[in-house]
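#lab-general

N.A. 3:47 PM
ok so I finally got the sequence cleaned up, no stray characters, all 442 residues accounted for. can someone with queue access submit it? mine expired

B.Y. 3:52 PM
send it over

N.A. 3:53 PM
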Amino acid sequence: MASQFTLFRSRRFTPMFFTQFLGAFNDNFFKQALLLVLTYSAAAKLGWSISLLNNLAAMLFILPFFLFSALAGQLADKYEKSRLTWYIKVLEVIIMIFAAIGLIFELYWLLFLALFLLGAQSTFFGPIKYAYLPQAMRQDELVGANGLFQTGTSLSILIGMIAAGLSTQLENNLYWVSAMALLIALFGLLATKFIPKMPAVQPELKINWNIFSTSRDTVKYLYSLPLLFFIVIGNSWFWFYGATFITQTPEFSKEILKGNESVVIFLLTLFSIGVATGSLLCKSLTKNKVSFKLLPFGIAGLSIFAIDLYFSLSVFDISSDTLLGVAQLTAIEDSWRVFADLFLLGFSGGIYIVPLYASMQAYSPISHRARVIGANNIFNAIFMVASAIFAILILAVLDLSLPQLFLVTGSINLLFGILLFTKLKKYAGTMQIEDDSFARSR
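B.Y. 4:20 PM
back already:
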């Protein structure tokens, strides 16, 4: 069985992979750099609280996913994808020019506008990249391609955040951040020139520009297809789950592990490498077939290692007047259990999410595939906002600890997972896998 890495030899895969990799990198690089600027500089100058500015930034980035995902799905179904991608990447370059002006001249209103526009640009690209894969890949390549995409996304997010942290420590840091963001956008634009043309799946589609009725109709259409509806709910749960854990990582790194900033990056790296490893193994474990057979193992792992993280953090007891680095922390025996839990949580997430993404693409009607992915993005945004509300409820209202938050989340995941797998098995026979003539002819 050929390795999925052989896909990098194909023009059908590589340009789109690097387009999405560079896009995810730039999103997280700019967003993280802006959060650092707001935290260490802008808050004091504006006289606003750090929490208010950071939450405003997070809201502005995610708001376009609520507003424009359904419209983005329509456009991706109606127009040829490589050309549409090129226009979207041109928009990213323009946004980064605005962002550079905002950073250099400290125009914070312009930076917030750029962040909103960057979220909108990501919203319009999302349905294209995931609807592209089943159209460009053969059916026996789809799981491997999704595994590589998920691996690339996980690593690009991590590398983007690390690069932001390093760039903001440099002299003349605002110039470095501006130049790097613009350069990455230009490289992404260059990558789009090599994406092969994909026939529009529904060129006669009449675009409904009313974003509210479009969103309603898209969600209503998804609900009429129970199998796809529960696949999307399962996808969105992954983002809820991941956001719940990743958001709390800095706090438990400092308060429980007594670790410094390098420990936060190390823990996020473990989680991301875990996701990447699980994602890459999906092709071999499923023998290239689109199926739900890995899902129970992913669900079980997400619960087992979240619950074990509760126990490993609960027994972790260290007193230190100074924050520890990675080397000092690894010398403490109990820390290795925490490291293993985070890696295996990521690994379980990888073997959970890749089969769901592949199934969403494979079972979606060809004529409506991008709109289904648009609906998926709407639910992803809802679930990520819900994760923040859930964490506030557990930590602030119920006054539980961080380890108890992980225990509750892992326990709920087990109940949710059983319900999800039951529904997917029930409806799996109601739809057939769609087969694209373009992919068969390549």
